[in-house]
Design a protein that fits this description.
This protein is of the alpha/beta class. The chain has a single domain, classed as Response regulator (Rossmann fold, 3-Layer(aba) Sandwich), CATH 3.40.50.2300. Helix content is 44%, strand content 20%. Strand 4, helix 4 and strand 5 form a beta-alpha-beta unit. The chain is globular, with a radius of gyration of 13 Å. 30% of the residues are buried.
């Protein structure tokens, strides 16, 4: 886990910055991306860590992101953070192999617990 990175994919710059500051304040290594495409073009499938992504992104949705990650051989768990609490969205993410689905707003401690569990999930 020492060399794991939290890859944050969030198209809202303010949300992305706030999440980054919070996670770095918790001692985590963070890389951020405004789009799923930026992530897919910049990160090697062999990278370790986990992905935190908003469900609804510009360009590629989180569902498309997960499909592309699978096709490219990524093994990282994906945590989806969203304001969409519909059972259909959660079910679709589960089918794609989403590690966890967090509904906004959520307690910061819950996010940290989820990240730490995800980092240990595939080690």
């Amino acid at each position: 886990m020492a060399h794991s990175t939290i890859f944050v994919i969030e198209d809202d710059a303010v949300q992305r910055k706030a999440l980054t500051l919070f996670l770095e304040g918790e001692g985590l290594t963070v890389r951020t991306f405004a789009t799923a495409r930026d992530f897919l073009e910049s990160v090697e499938p062999s990278a370790t860590g986990c992905v935190i992504s908003d469900l609804r992104l510009s360009e590629l949705s989180a569902i498309d992101l997960m499909r592309e990650m699978t096709a490219k051989g990524f093994q990282m768990p994906v945590i989806i953070c969203t304001g969409d609490s519909s059972p259909k969205a959660a079910e679709e993410m589960a089918v794609q192999g989403c590690y966890h689905f967090l509904i906004k707003p959520f307690e910061p401690a819950k996010l940290i617990r989820t990240i730490l569990a995800a980092l240990n999930y595939r080690l």
